[in-house]
């Protein structure tokens, strides 16, 4: 959940009390256009995001959402409407990527960006909404949290229980929003595209079918500190008939390579997130979730990295990445270790670095260990998705090009192939 926005409802409890018994207070007609958009929402009005929305047909998502809010008459109804509309946006994005229904425009179907920008239009509409009943900042923040979770697939991870003799493996995959948008607002994130392409699909392996459920997470430190990862994954990690058989957190990493990250570190390095917020600290574990005490400095993948590296999963090389940065036991200076951490050391970067890629891997594997989940799980870094030659300048470039689309589709295909190796060992 994001920090509470400093927005106050314009109608107080006195108005609600003055309404006749049994009658709902009508919603106000006009949004509060003076409400300050978030840093992410402010990028929405740039030309590239608007073109992405228009060329995908997702430019109607925010206006339709605002109209739905205008008819809301109570906080309970607001929760229902927002959950419904958020879930619809997620399903719509999944359907578009997977080829169901009309494309809605000429933007390639594999694109993850319409979901990101449409969601921001909806969060901005929610921030500007003036209901005809009292709405505290805390309640608005809770409604925003509902919108975020439902529109990211975080609340719809629905793994099958399976039947006797018809065992279906269960796999969870996560991706991320686009990021570094101040440098180039056109950016896509292949991990998010892969998550949309894989959600609800079945992978066939020699050892049986595997059902895949996915979610896409924000590139924001605060949401991770508030427990969005653990809240989404814990139902699937707990013991029971729908417990995962494998999980794969995915993010965009290095140019020209996939990396299976061997070790994850308990350190935030401070690089600004999508809200332009920095955090440099030990990864904070939210209250109320299973964890290990004392908090470990390192967690380790249980993915079959040797088999993944050896398999012919696609055109891009895949590496077992073992490097970390640590402060050795009794030391004070960070040291790069090519073969993993030494005993008693303090983390300063995992194999996946010290940003949110490393952090989601750390959180997921720490949760795995805390609940005693014995399953393959860990982090995969995809290659960096780049625009084609002649389209690299964000000031003059186009929002898409053939190389850009081809590479994103190829990355998604190879993620699916790598996941097949994981599923076969689950």
TrEMBL record:
InterPro entries: Peptidase_C15-like_sf (IPR036440). Residues 327-352 are annotated as: Disordered. Keywords: Signal. It comes from Streptomyces iranensis. Residues 1-29 form the signal peptide. This is Secreted protein. It comes from the Bacteria.
